[in-house]
């Protein structure tokens, strides 16, 4: 590569890296010219020239904040970095997975926003994969009967989480078949198999509870009743050992035998963070262990495997699966 071209390529790479650094540092007050010069091993004068190019030729709006003798540079609020068609496709594919869920009402709006952004950066909308993929990808999932209504409740819960205020829920309880009223301090949301769940402190139970969002019939925000998010609570830690979304605090070791027809599945798919292959048997089957809590949710998962998976431990879970199989057999007796 000729010297001039090599120099231009090096500077072009540095400009992109400076923009990336500005994006990362802007939420934290920006970055100084000195810090950029040290990071990219060039003079401060060169950084000033680079910032001028970024602002006036690449059209990235910059803001300078003076604190004493220090000037910090950041990207103007509201500016979105350029989006390539490849990145847009990945974003849109992730959105399609939410079809029929509480978030489905916004899919087309976001797709239009993505297309508009790409058009701004001179990509031809007729050639964009996001337009073609919407017609050529079909997501096979359970869907809500009224996603718009659930989406509205979901938005109210997100707002309550952001603002740390209590909400009143009218909630359908599966085991009793009744609708109950709960006042909850919402800590966060979790998603499992496209189903959304609210995690929060239930004032009636004075404990953390999990509520399936599509079983919430209505939400009333208590915008004047704020709460303090507990410093010792972590949503990832709370869910870490749960098989599904229930954390009953009782972590139990489960030993399962997958026969040769499905043993490859547990080699390719991790169903739980604790999953370990204990033994691969001569007949092609595999013995797999898990350490999880909330095992009532595991029963349905085990049942879907039919005769291809056998519970070895614990004894009570083995007995529960045997009894369930017996009850199902009775349903189908002629």
UniProtKB/TrEMBL annotation:
Q: Which residues form the WCX domain?
A: 252-329
Short name of one Pfam family: WCX
Listed InterPro entries:
CBASS_pafABC_assoc_protein (IPR051534), HTH_11 (IPR013196), PafC-like (IPR028349), WCX_dom (IPR057727), WH-like_DNA-bd_sf (IPR036388), WYL_dom (IPR026881)
PROSITE patterns for the chain? WYL
Per the database record, which ranges form the Helix-turn-helix type domain? 14-58
Tree of life domain: Bacteria
| Ranges for domain WYL | 153-219
Q: What is this protein called?
A: WYL domain-containing protein
Q: Can you name the source organism? A: Desulfofundulus thermobenzoicus
């Amino acid at each position: 590569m000729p010297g001039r071209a090599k120099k231009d390529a090096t500077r072009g790479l540095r400009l992109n890296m400076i923009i990336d650094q500005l994006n990362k540092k802007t939420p934290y007050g920006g970055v100084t010219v000195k810090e950029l010069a040290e990071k990219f091993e060039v003079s401060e004068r060169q950084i000033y020239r680079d910032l001028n190019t970024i602002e006036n030729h690449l059209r990235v709006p910059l803001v300078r904040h003076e604190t004493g003798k220090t000037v910090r540079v950041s990207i103007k609020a509201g500016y979105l970095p350029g989006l390539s068609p490849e990145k847009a496709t990945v974003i849109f594919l992730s959105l399609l997975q939410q079809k029929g869920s509480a978030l489905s009402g916004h899919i087309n709006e976001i797709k239009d926003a993505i297309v508009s952004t790409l058009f701004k950066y001179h990509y031809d909308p007729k050639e964009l994969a996001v337009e073609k993929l919407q017609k050529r990808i079909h997501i096979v999932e359970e869907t809500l009967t009224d996603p718009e209504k659930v989406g509205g409740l979901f938005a109210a819960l997100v707002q309550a989480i952001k603002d740390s205020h209590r909400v009143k829920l009218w909630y359908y309880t599966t085991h009793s078949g009744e609708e109950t009223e709960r006042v909850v301090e919402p800590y966060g949301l979790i998603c499992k198999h496209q189903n959304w769940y609210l995690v929060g402190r239930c004032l009636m139970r004075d404990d953390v509870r999990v509520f399936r969002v599509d079983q919430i019939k209505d939400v009333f925000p208590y915008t004047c009743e704020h709460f303090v998010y507990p410093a010792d609570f972590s949503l990832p830690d709370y869910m870490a050992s749960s098989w599904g979304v229930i954390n009953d605090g009782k972590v139990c070791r489960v030993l399962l035998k997958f026969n040769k027809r499905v043993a490859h599945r547990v080699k390719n798919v991790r169903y739980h963070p604790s999953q370990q292959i204990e033994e691969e048997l001569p007949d092609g089957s595999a013995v797999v262990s898990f350490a999880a809590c909330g095992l009532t949710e595991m029963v349905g998962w085990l049942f879907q495997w039919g005769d291809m998976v056998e519970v070895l431990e614990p004894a009570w879970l083995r007995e529960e699966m045997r009894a369930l199989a017996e009850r199902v057999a009775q349903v189908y007796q002629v």
